[in-house]
Amino acid sequence: MSYPLPREVSPGVFWLGDCLVQHSQGKIYHSYNAAFLIIGSEASMLVETGHPKDFPIIEGQMRDILAKGGGPLKHLFLTHQETPHSGGLGRVLDRYPDLTIHGDMCDYHLAFPQHEGRFKEMRVGDAIDLGNTQFMAVEPVIRDLRSSLWGFETKGRVLFPGDGFAYSHYHTDGHCGMFAEEATSLDLVDVLGVFAERALFWTTFTDMNIYADKLEELMAELNVEIVAPTHGLPIRDIAQTMPKVREGLVRGD
Question: How far apart, in whole angstroms, are the C-alpha atoms of residue 116 and residue 108?
Fold first, then answer.
């Protein structure tokens, strides 16, 4: 049984996007280039813009949610500059002229010099007040680019790790739109390993136990309750799912 998006992963935090089909080793995998919308009492924030092909879908989902109340959309946070994460940035800048952009802003001004004043640098520990919740920049334990940065929503204790929990799911098993714990037939260890090999190849040349340890330390420090990855099904039972995540991360090192 698939679930249509958007889907609320935590009160006021919505999962947006659509599936992307991938082929590997004779198998067909689906994955997400997801965005997330945080509704605050004073301001709302979009996390990621999704893949360019998905932006019309994401924008429609976002408008429907914002029409139901909450603070106006004032902020966009980007984990890094890769296309599946920030490929919709130009359209966001044009369609929401009062929006400010946050993250590691090292080179966005080169692509959009006319919007340079809207790019607001964030460093680990910086926070944005949304009214009844805050959004913090936190350490990117697993980086895709040098400029990667993770985010954390304080009310629901939701971690936004970008590529840190990247994995696919099985369309034929109805996993689309499910949370990780609902996809009972998903071989999480396998799909984490496949995604790491294809998208984070550096992980095959290092001891990933070091990164898994740091990831567990960060999650304990923040008391994370939900993980909202860009390329994976959201995780809502940390105790159940994190051991599988760790095994998948270290599988190919």
Answer: 8
- Bridge partners (DSSP) of residue 22 are 29
What is the DSSP pairing of strand 100-103 with strand 119-121? parallel
* Six token digits for residue 19: 């599936």
The predicted-structure confidence for 175-217, as pLDDT tens digits, reads as follows 888 898 988 888 877 777 666 666 666 667 778 788 889 999 9
Please identify which residue in the block is written with the tokens 């995540």: 245
Domains of the chain listed by start with CATH number:
7-177+220-234 (3.60.15.10)
Nearest to 159 by CA among 151, 170, 169: 151
pTM of the model: 0.92
| Measured distance CA(101)–CA(138) in Å, rounded | 16
Q: How many Å apart are CA 56 and CA 222, to the nearest integer? A: 33
C-alpha 148 chain-centroid distance: 12
